[in-house]
Amino acid sequence: MKKSLTYLLLSAFGLCLSTHGNAQIAMFGNNPQHTGVYHSDLPNDLELVKKWKFKTNGMIFSSPVVSNGSIYFGSDDSCLYALDTLGHNKWIFKCDGILRSAPAVMDTLVYINTYGGTLYAINTTTGLQTWKYHTSGERHFSKIGLFGWTPADL
């Protein structure tokens, strides 16, 4: 029953993202199916120069998401970070487990899930929790994770 409820909740979340026509949406792969790309008009001779760096208390595997002038990413220190585009900390939200997935942003909420199995909705302005939902935890499908690592509970 709990797995079905979790699937239903995540499916409804994906449907909500895909049908919300005027929403500001940012996520890995540009859509809930992660099959899209973001289009940009960058010059061919673009030179990348490091402008700033930001240190967390854990490794960072989470892909960053940029939305409305903010950069969101998770860390192995169990925190979700929101930075401005100059690398200044806007807020930090402490979760119940490490964060390795990319956040998803829609309008004023950033969504992130932990290895502990909690899905969070955090207000993009305040960094305060709007709601959370506990699942039965991270699931892998017969593959070992990055560098042979797996969540601590497997």
Task: Give a short synopsis of this structure.
The protein has 154 residues and is α+β, with helices and mostly antiparallel strands. The chain is 12% helix and 27% strand.
Report on this structure:
The chain is 12% helix and 27% strand. The chain has 154 residues and is of the alpha+beta class. The chain has one domain: Beta Barrel (Lipocalin), CATH 2.40.128. It has a 5-stranded antiparallel sheet, with no helix packed on it. Strands 2-3-4-5 form a 4-stranded antiparallel sheet, with no helix packed on it. A hairpin with a 2-residue loop joins strand 2 and strand 3. The longest helix has 18 residues. It is globular.
Please work out how many helical segments DSSP would assign: 1
Name the structural class. alpha+beta
Sheet with the most strands, sense and barrel status: 5 strands, antiparallel
Q: Fraction of residues in helices?
A: 10-25%
Shape: globular
Proportion of residues in extended strands: 25-35%
CATH topology: Lipocalin
Radius of gyration: 16 Å
Number of strands: 9
Low-confidence region ranges: 1-21
| Gap from first CA to last CA | 22 Å
The second-level CATH architecture is Beta Barrel
Oligomer: single chain
In which order are the strands of the major sheet placed?
1-6-7-8-9
